[in-house]
Amino acid sequence: MQLLAFAVIAASTGALLARLVPSTGSVASLLPLWAGLIAPVALLLARARPTGIVRFRATDLMWGLGLGLLLRLIQGASERADLQPFPTVSAAGGPFSGAWWIEQGLAAGVVGPMVEEFFFRAVILVLVYRLLRRVTGAVAASVAALLCSAGSFVLIHQVFAPLSVSAAVQLLLVGALCAAVVLLTGRIWGAVLAHVVYNVTFLGLGLIGSFAS
Description:
Elements: H1 2-20, H2 31-47, H3 59-78, H4 98-136, H5 138-160, H6 165-185, H7 189-212
Helix pairs in contact: 1-2, 2-4, 3-6, 3-7, 4-5, 4-6, 4-7, 5-6, 6-7
Protein name: CAAX prenyl protease 2/Lysostaphin resistance protein A-like domain-containing protein
Keywords: Membrane, Transmembrane, Transmembrane helix
GO biological process, one term: CAAX-box protein maturation
């Protein structure tokens, strides 16, 4: 319970500090948030030593690739992407510059998904599940943990920019399916890879759109 409370306080503090940083589109504006999310992860790994959740299996690759592509296809279908122009990306020096690869490719494509998945799935999901399992049973605890994990995932994005209904629903779906993978496999890497694939495919489409425009 104490670790869960610390996670909520650390994430809230990180989000608040990140909001105070001028929004320049650079990685620097995300560092306070990442710090707030990483601190509970580090504490959990140090205190609880959940070796099972960080174990990697080859099937995690299939979970990650399949789920990430499925989520992107659902997002495209829900927003009628076939009727829309390709998205484009922008960064100082152009979309193919070193700045873009750091600020968008590395931050949004790799670091962001990893930090978010470890916090929302390895910390929030696991702690809520453990807290409720003995009281409500495994099934009810799984459902509650999934909803808490996915709901807080949407909320942290809402803090930085108002979300449309469709965007909020899509993020809720991403959070819910990633949480479901962790609950089904007992490991975090399928969710991490799914989130990475989901973000990277959008960045890839943006590069194609920028190159074609």
